[in-house]
C-alpha cells in the first residue's frame, strides 16, 4: 500500500481538555482532516502521535485506523514519516479516549521483520512488528544497538519521546532491522534515522551479539566513531534530547533508573568488554 499523507488541523492539542468532558485531558494532539468527510458528515477526526508538543497543524502519514464498533465514525492515526509504531503502542496512546468505546486498531502497511531461530538463521517467513510480544517459542527477530563515540571519548545517549514505551528514559541508538536487511545494514539505517549520522557499513564495528529468550530478540551491538564536532539531528517522535558524556558519566547514567532497564542489563553483563571499547583512555 502506498503511503497516504494528510494535513491535520489540531483543535485539541496536547494538554487541552475535551469540550464536553473537562476531566478528559489529551496526552496526544487530536484534530481533523479538512475535506475528508467521515460517515457522521463531519471532517475526519485523527490522532497525531509522535509529536511531543502542542501544535496547530501537522502533515504526516496515516498508519492506522481505529474502528469503533459502537460509533458511526472511525478515527485515523497520523504520524511523522519514517516513525514506526506497533499496534500495542497505538492502543496505549489512545486508550485515554478509546477506553469509552468498543474499538480496535487496524494497522496499514505495517513494518515487517524476518523471523530467525536462536542461531540467527532465517526461518523463511516474515512477522509483523505488532506481533513482537507474542512470538512463538524459538522464534526471534533481530535488533541492533549502536554506541556512538566521539574522538574526545564521549559517548552519545539519547532520551526517548514521552509518547513511546519507557517514556523519557535514556538509551543508545537502536531498533529492529527490517525484512531483507542484514544486522549491519539495519544499524546504519537506524543510526542515520535517529541521529543524522551517516556511516558506511564497513565503518561500523561489531562489539558483540547475544540473544534474549524472554524478549525473543537477538541483539547485535555496534560501535560508530565520529569527530568531536559531529552534529546530531534528533528524529521527531523518537527522541527528546541527547548528551555526549565522558565514559564514567555515561556509565553512571546507564546504571541509574533513568536508563532503559533491558539495555542497562546487557551493558552490565558485558561491562568489561564495553569499557575496553568505550573508555576515554582507549581512544
TrEMBL record:
Return the protein name.
Answer: NUDIX domain-containing protein
**SUPFAM superfamilies the UniProt entry points to:** Inorganic pyrophosphatase, Nudix
PANTHER family with a match to the protein in the record: ADP-RIBOSE PYROPHOSPHATASE, DIHYDRONEOPTERIN TRIPHOSPHATE DIPHOSPHATASE
- Pfam families referenced in this protein's UniProt entry, alphabetically: NUDIX
**Has keyword Nucleotide-binding?**
no
User: What are the Nudix hydrolase domain coordinates in residue numbering?
Assistant: 139-267
| Keywords assigned | Hydrolase
Answer yes or no on keyword Hydrolase: yes
Q: Which InterPro entries match?
A: NUDIX_hydrolase-like_dom_sf (IPR015797), NUDIX_hydrolase_CS (IPR020084), NUDIX_hydrolase_dom (IPR000086), Pyrophosphatase_sf (IPR036649)
* Entry's family note: Belongs to the Nudix hydrolase family.
Amino acid at each position: 500500500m502506498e503511503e497516504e499523507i494528510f494535513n491535520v488541523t489540531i483543535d485539541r492539542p496536547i494538554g487541552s481538555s475535551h469540550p464536553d468532558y473537562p476531566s478528559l485531558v489529551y496526552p496526544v494532539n487530536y484534530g481533523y482532516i479538512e475535506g475528508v468527510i467521515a460517515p457522521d458528515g463531519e471532517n475526519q477526526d485523527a490522532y497525531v502521535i509522535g509529536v511531543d508538543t502542542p501544535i496547530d497543524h501537522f502533515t504526516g502519514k496515516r498508519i492506522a485506523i481505529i474502528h469503533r464498533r459502537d460509533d458511526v465514525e472511525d478515527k485515523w492515526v497520523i504520524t511523522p514519516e519514517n516513525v514506526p509504531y506497533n499496534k500495542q503502542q497505538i492502543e496505549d496512546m489512545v486508550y485515554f479516549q478509546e477506553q469509552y468505546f468498543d474499538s480496535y486498531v487496524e494497522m496499514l502497511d505495517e513494518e515487517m521483520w524476518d523471523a530467525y531461530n536462536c542461531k540467527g538463521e532465517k526461518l523463511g517467513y516474515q512477522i509483523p512488528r505488532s506481533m513482537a510480544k507474542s512470538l512463538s517459542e524459538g522464534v526471534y527477530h533481530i535488533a541492533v544497538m549502536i554506541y556512538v563515540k566521539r574522538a574526545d571519548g564521549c559517548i552519545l545517549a539519547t532520551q526517548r519521546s514521552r509518547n513511546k514505551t519507557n517514556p523519557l528514559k535514556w538509551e543508545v541508538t537502536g531498533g529492529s532491522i527490517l525484512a531483507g536487511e542484514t544486522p549491519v545494514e539495519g544499524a546504519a539505517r537506524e543510526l542515520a534515522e535517529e541521529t543524522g549520522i551517516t556511516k558506511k557499513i564497513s565503518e561500523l564495528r561489531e562489539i558483540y551479539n547475544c540473544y534474549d529468550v524472554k524478549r525473543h530478540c537477538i541483539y547485535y551491538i555496534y560501535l560508530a566513531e565520529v569527530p568531536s564536532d559531529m552534529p546530531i539531528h534528533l528524529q521527531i517522535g523518537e527522541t527528546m534530547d541527547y548528551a555526549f558524556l565522558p565514559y564514567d558519566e555515561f556509565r553512571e547514567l546507564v546504571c541509574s533508573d533513568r536508563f532503559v532497564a533491558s539495555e542497562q542489563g546487557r551493558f552490565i553483563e558485558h561491562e568489561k568488554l564495553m569499557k575496553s571499547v568505550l573508555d576515554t583512555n582507549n581512544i
